[in-house]
Amino acid sequence: MLRLKIDPWSSDYGPSLHLQDSETIAEVKLDLEGEWRAHDPQPADPLKEVALIDGVRRMELNLRLEDEARSMKAAIGTLGCGALVIKPGEPQSLTQALRYVDVRAYLLVDALDGPTLPNLTTLANATDLMMTLQNKMRETEAILADRVSEEVELVIADGPLQNTHSLKHEVLGYIKSQHQQLLERKEMDLVRQLQPGQRTPIFSLGQDTKYHRLSWYLRLDSPAQDETVLAGIVRLEMDANYGLQQAQKRANQLGSLLPKLKNSRHRDARSPQNLVPIAVLERAVRHRLGDPALRQRNYRQTLLGAFS
User: Fold this and answer.
1) How many Å apart are CA 195 and CA 221, to the nearest integer?
2) Number of Cα atoms under 13 Å in the Cβ half of residue 151
3) DSSP code string of 207-259
4) 128: which DSSP letter?
5) Main-chain phi, psi angles of 121, to 5 degrees
6) For 121, which of 67, 73, 198, 230 is 20 to 30 Å away at the CA?
7) What is the pLDDT of residues 36-55, one digit of tens each?
């Protein structure tokens, strides 16, 4: 009998699970580690420094781009991306851990040739304004990930690797909300049964594409009695060019580390997947974006000055 279960994420962020059919997904190869069974983290050299990359974006003003015959969508949006470097087992202040923050502002227009405004970069032909800003944020995260990867042992970027898979250095993608059902039902049964710290076998995605990566599911925490059985599940992925042995090493290191960084449900609306250091980084980057009301007022003044 079907029963309703709670998705523990706050509805402000949307659901952590909105799965599509597996038929739309790139080829999945499951036999890299033999039997499809749960894996406990094995002893591995502990990570000394890990950089977490994340970004936030915000629409500041919804606009229309108009002339005598046309009225088209436009908006002003800002984004911020940051890198937080943690040293597992070593206390650090935010000042010590926060390495970089990059804040940018854009004028987004659904036209081939948009106007320009002071201190704003115009992104033209943006049919889906929010998606355009989201993609620009992912591109900025990728640039930052490549930069910081020269300084630390491992970089973990929030989200899948679409923009970071071609970088010069090793970067892992950390996917905390599940948008696509990559596995068939019998394989997903194992994902549902994972205990905290356990992972699935490593599998291959997109073997015949330039976006070929190795991936695995990891459970950070057990779901509460009234929560969906996939609460507390994250997926990690890395460029397949680093090979299965390197993926196993990272899976063991992160299987021991990440459950220790999980957030508590009363402190974070996207717990436990939104790790404590990621939440700290997001707050720091949002602070750099500035007060929304003040930014709106400044942009209104900019518009009045440019078109009056």
Assistant:
1) 7
2) 15
3) TTSSS-EEEEEEE-SPPPTTB-TTTTEEEEEEEGGGHHHHHHHHHHHHHHHGG
4) S
5) -90, 130
6) 67
7) 999 998 888 889 999 999 99
Strands 178-180, 28-29: pairing is unpaired
> How far is CA 36 from each of CA 165, 190, 191, 267, rounded to the nearest angstrom?
26, 8, 10, 35
Stretch 60-78: mean pLDDT: 84
CA–CA dist 283, 197 (Å, integer):
27
Q: Give the integer Cα–Cα distance in Å for 73 and 108.
A: 8
Instruction: Report domain extents, the chain.
Output: 11-307
Q: Are strands 50-66 and 154-158 parallel, antiparallel or unpaired?
A: parallel
State in Å, rounded, how far the first CA of the chain is from the last one. 64
| Cα distance between residue 48 and residue 134, in whole Å | 31
Cis bond before residue 272 (omega within 30° of 0): yes
Three-class DSSP category at 115:
coil
Based on C-alpha coordinates, what's the Rg of the chain? 21
CB within 8 Å of 251: residues ≥ 6 apart: 39, 41, 199, 202, 216, 218, 236
What order do you get walking across the sheet with 98-109 strand by strand? 28-29, 203-205, 213-219, 233-239, 171-175, 154-158, 50-66, 71-86, 98-109, 121-123
3-class SS letters over 144-162: HHHHHCCCCCEEEEEECCC
Write the pLDDT tens digit of every residue in 114-146: 778 888 899 988 889 999 999 999 889 988 998
DSSP letter (8 states) at residue 38? -
Q: What is the pTM of this model?
A: 0.83
10-46 pLDDT, tens digit each:
434 444 444 444 334 568 899 899 999 999 988 888 8
Q: How far, in Å, CA of 82 to CA of 97, rounded?
A: 11
Looking at residue 266, its pLDDT comes to 61
